Amino acid sequence: MLHYETGQQLNPLLPGYSFNIYLVAGTTPIIENGPLDFFIDRKNGMSGFIINMTVKGRGKVFDGDDAFDCNPGDLLLFPPEAAHFYGRAPDSPDWYHRWIYFRPRAYWAHWLKWRNQVNKVGRLTLSDKALITEFDELFQQIEQTYKAGRRSSEELAINLLERLLIRCFEETPENRISPIDQRIEQACQFLSRNLAEEVNLAEIARHVCLSPSRLAHLFRDQMGVNIVRWREDQRMILAKHLLHSTCLPITRIASTVGYDDQMYFSRVFRKRVGTSPSEFRQSSEAPPACCETPEAGVAVQAQP
Ligand code: FCB
Questions:
Q1: Beta carbon of 21 within 6 Å of any ligand 1 atom
Q2: Which one of 72, 108, 230, 262 is CB 3.0 to 4.6 Å from 104, fit for a cystine?
Q3: Residues sharing a CB contact under 8 Å with residue 43, sequence separation 6 or more, in sequence order
Q4: What pLDDT is stored for residue 177 in this prediction?
Q5: CB of 85 closer than 8 Å to CB of 44
């Protein structure tokens, strides 16, 4: 399925699909000699994560010494840097797997470090039937929600995905419970309360009683990204929400999330989201009712 003007692949099950979005979910039914019976081979990984779960038949991942099979109830997590090489196990007539491609929220880092790994690919085997059913339903719910095409579909799907990742974390036997350091939690809250302000490292460090270098180090360690990147991600999440759910002019949204320079905001937005803020707003299925007049003259519907 190709786009009629750009020639781009529109079917995520076939090679060439761009995956330039925050979440895509699907199920790949591979049947021996069927149209999808080929090995997925992405040597350099992808720009987002993939989580997948085998629901029927058997899959084979990697070749040679690293090769392993996956059976119903096996989950795999591919971080961006992991190579993808998987397909139907040659001795199985089929391999059905559900999958979700996603760009994680900044604060998910903790749930994305799976302890059991082969070639950077995280592995988790669900131990009983009830768990397999629970996870399978969650995958299906995420796929249906993402495909529903409502204005908040993506956010709702991401919300369910967060649940899935937390459940994976809970079901991983090796996970010692090591909660996020309270000072890092406080730093996140402080940053969120002051999202639009340019608070600097020294100020945050003072607020949580750590030295700036210790804070920077601990933050990166616990959250998986540095403070500036974490705040940028939070700003983009809020900006996306405001673009879809209010009629605020884009300059106003830019300043609400901390960018006085709208051009700079648009550049960051494009880099992180893949489209300009106005394209993102137009992609909304049903814009808020007050958006019927041109942007400059619209009434403000909601405040953050
Ligand atoms: C599909 C594959 C699936 C997953 C997504 C991103 O083509 O069947 O396993 O890799 O791409």
A1: no
A2: 108
A3: 83, 85
A4: 59
A5: no
CA 51 – ligand 1 centroid, Å? 10
Q: Which atom of ligand 1 is nearest to the CA of 97?
A: 9
The residue assigned the tokens 């391999």 is 95
pLDDT, mean over the chain: 87
Least confident of 13-27, 39-53, 285-299: 285-299
H or E stretch at 57: strand 49-57
What tokens does 149 get? 């095409």
Mutate to test the pocket of ligand 1, among 13, 43, 76 (most ligand atoms within 8 A of CB): 13
How do residues 76-127 score in pLDDT, each as one tens digit? Answer: 999 998 999 999 999 999 999 999 999 898 788 888 989 899 999 999 999 8
Q: The domain at 225-290 falls in which architecture?
A: Orthogonal Bundle (1.10)
**What is the side-by-side strand order in the sheet with 23-31?**
23-31, 94-102, 49-57, 74-78, 121-125, 117-118
Atom number of ligand 1 nearest to Cα 50: 6
Q: How far apart are CA 228 and CA 215, in angstroms?
A: 12
**Is residue 29 within 8 Å of residue 96, measured between CB atoms?**
yes
- In angstroms and rounded to an integer, the radius of gyration of the C-alpha atoms of the chain is 21
Q: Which CATH superfamily is domain 23-178 in?
A: Regulatory protein AraC (2.60.120.280)
